[in-house]
Amino acid sequence: MTTTSVIDPREVLTLIPYQLGFAPDHSMVVMSLTSDESGRTSSGTIRRIDLPPTVDLVSLAGWAATETEQADGVLAVIYLDDTARAAQAAQMLRLRLDNLRAVLVVTADGWFDAEADVPDIKPLPQDATTRIGAAMILREEFYAPTRETMMGQPEID
Question: Which end of the chain is more exposed for a tag (fewer CB within 10 A), N or C?
Answer without folding.
Answer: C
